[in-house]
Amino acid sequence: MDLLRFFTAGNVDDGKSTLIGRLLYDSESISTDIIETLTRQSKTTGENTSIDLALLTDGLRAEREQGITIDVAYKYFSTHKRKFIIADTPGHAQYTRNMFTGASTAQLAIILVDARNGITDQTKRHSIISATLGIPQVLLCINKMDLVAYSEERFNEIVSEYQLFSRLIGLNKVDFIPTSALGGDNVVYSSERLNWYDGMPLLEYLETVEVDESKEIEDARFQVQYVIRPQTEALHDYRGYAGSILSGEFKVGDEVVILPSGLQTRIARMESNLKDVAFARKNQPVVLHLEDHLDISRGDTIVPKDALPRTDKSVEATICWMDNASFSAGQKFLLQQNSFRTKAVIREIHSKIDIHSFKDLESDGTLGLNELAKVSVKTAEAVSYDPFNRLAKTGAFILINENTNQTVAAGVI
Questions:
Q1: Domain edge (last residue) among 304, 323, 347
Q2: Does 215 fall in a domain?
Q3: Which of 304, 338, 372 is the last residue of a domain?
Q4: Residues 395 and 381 both lie in one domain
Q5: How far is CA 192 from CA 154, 197, 201, in A?
């Protein structure tokens, strides 16, 4: 069954968590015992509704007490047409880093707008991050239509304004749906109160939207997660390289290159689920056996001889700074890309990105929490990668503080 990964973003109190709760509740995607639990918990929130649907995604007690969603809450559900992974991201400006994380693997962005307030700075910020990460499809969900008397005129005003802005920042595929998450209008079922809208409700849209995956090349990529050497009497010569195929397809007999060393060999055998297989595809866990005994370690990348990625000790990237402490010149990091890890420094901050206009701002050499910047990163060992807009799995990385082991930045190459 097809899988769609999407995230929701918007201003505080635009109704993101309520929208997802309504989507899960009305589509009967939550069990009876969870509904009973939510009913009991809702009585303590002082809400007028029988069930506070936002509690389905507000997973932490602290979030509920503050009335905000602090972290990224993931939910999984399915219909008879599609499986879904939802990331509900925070609305506060200071949690931009969480939104960057939630959006990094998404195929669709749902950006909520309060029909009363229209397009805000946060709407622009979330749209710019979506453009930076190359999200293939954006849906502007104009929520709380009940508070503007279900006005078609107000809906059209917001659509027109956002269309102008989306063209400015390079968002090509944008759709619009009017909703009232609290009342369930146009979430799972079409609403008579929005009878001027002739499009589909949100759930039907999610079930049928075609997401362009052409940005992801199909060149085969495999990164070693674990080197298997039992060295038992029965398996004395066993040497396998375990991991999941990041993209494309590998076959027994393929001529491959090991990166960053550049050594060449051939796939002699492949195992999946303890059985020999002739080929394996994207996302499939496998153990590769090679014809030659080479010096291969965790994090090394195995690729076809005729489809090499870039391999370099310097990468140009866009990063989102995630640490409460500001960046300091000369700071040392660990760069992690899947299972590959190496020491790194930010050699230069070329510019910062204005989250309101999408324009480059002159760098002052500093980086603060939630700031986006274009940088050069120098690494101790060569990184094998594809540009993020071609293959997200090898074009994304995180920077880790070498002393505290805290993630301080996420980046796309």
A1: 304
A2: no
A3: 304
A4: yes
A5: 17, 9, 12
> Following DSSP, what letter does each residue of 103-141 receive, concatenated?
HTT-SEEEEEEETTT-S-HHHHHHHHHHHHTT-SEEEEE
With a CB cutoff of 8 Å and minimum separation 6, the contacts of 236 are: none
238 contacts: CB under 8 Å, gap ≥ 6: 228, 229, 230, 231
Q: Output the DSSP codes for 312-336.
A: EEEEEEEEEE--SSPP-TT-EEEEE
Q: Is 359 inside a domain boundary?
A: yes
- Helix (H) / strand (E) containing 304: strand 301-304
Q: Structural domain of residue 237, as residue ranges? A: 221-304
| pLDDT, tens digit, 9 for 90 and up, residues 155-182 | 999 999 999 888 888 887 899 999 998 8
On whether both 204 and 287 belong to a single domain, the answer is no
The residues facing 257 across adjacent strands are 264, 303
Exposure string over 249-262, b if 16+ CB within 10 A, otherwise e: ebebebebbbbbee
3-state secondary structure of 412: strand
Q: Based on the structure, what is the number of domains in the chain?
A: 3
Please write the tens of the pLDDT for every residue from 186-243. 988 898 999 999 999 999 999 998 876 554 457 999 999 999 887 666 666 788 999 9
Give the strand pairing for 263-272 and 255-259: antiparallel
Q: Which residues pair with 312 in a beta bridge?
A: 383
